[in-house]
Amino acid sequence: MDDIPKDQLTGALRRGAVKKHVAAIHVSGKLTLLQRKLSNVLLLNAYDTITSQVSHRIDARTLCLMIGYNSNDIETLKTALRGLAETTAEWDMLDEQGRQEWGISALLSYARLKGGVCEYAYSPALAEKLYDPKVFALINLNIQRRFTSGHALALYENCYRFIRTGSTGWWDLDLFRRLLGVGDSAYYETYKHLNAKIIKPAVAEVNKTSNILVTPEVRKMGRSVSHIRFTLKENPQLSILDLDDGTGLRKSAAYGRLRDLAVGDRLARQWLKEHGEAAVSAKLDYLGGRDDVRNPAAYLRRALAEGPPEQAEVSPRNLSPRAARLGAIRDAAAGRSPTQRDADRRLFSARLDTAQRADFERHGWMSPLNREAIEAFWEELVPGVFDELA
């Protein structure tokens, strides 16, 4: 959790030429891979209201699923939250007026579990820094899930915020050990051990797993390594489609449904990019409730370009029962937060066999093979979701 600019929400911002380009927030102590993933999920969940709300809430089951462990293992969640509350974040930077600012804060000011909900808060000073797009780089959770090493994820987080400058700048070796969570280990005071056990494996995983490529460079004082930096660039081997918010355009449910209607790959991606998955899904849902459309692709082209005039007058009562229920599921899913939506899909997918899961991955909540299971799932998840259709 060492970085979090609003980078992927509003674009990268830069400081003036005479100021530090990127401010640094360093996390003390050793965070496990689970704790690092947990801190990123909590931050993403709170980000939009982090400076306006005192506390934030997330369903504990959703939180567990997003991090990738058993949703019934509350003791592990408690241990991870305790670790965040006991770990400090320290910053030393220039403010907008060029004045030096130093500060320290616990990663979480408090956390509690009650009624299946995790409530937590950040200190006001840390919340301000976490929200500042010039300080942190928001970590894409789809990339985060790929990491299997806490050291590799820590290296990625500390490097990623420098992608615009192409280099991290020189880090004192003691600071670098702290950033990777091995500052209190006498074994890693020897650069040979640090390089063999930490740096090389972490660099290999970052380059294989993430959307950036990093290369370490060292500076010596006499015969001993005193500083290290990483040059970085975007990883051309990873398709941008796999790194967007979610599972990628080609893996979205709407893309699969468009392809089933014989819409070409390029056109399907163009529609999704221009109109968004929600709008395309809405048109597909409406189309699914009609039996008089002879050319679905042509109809969708017109509907997306100008919107079907008759759709504004359509209510659930005018749709077929199946289309109405599909619409209710779509609306319920759209009303969930991004972290909840991802967890809902993972939770439902875990219940399916191989064939069912393949159909669900292709069609999402509109999966014809899993129709009854999907309706039962949403009735359980959101009681009364179909009541207005009765």
TrEMBL record:
Annotated TM spans: none
Record-linked Pfam families: Rep3_C (PF21205), Rep3_N (PF01051)
SUPFAM superfamilies reported in the protein's UniProt record: Winged helix' DNA-binding domain
Highest taxon of source: Bacteria
Ranges for domain Initiator Rep protein WH1: 18-159
Family: Belongs to the initiator RepB protein family.
The protein's name: Replication protein RepB
Species of provenance: Jannaschia pagri
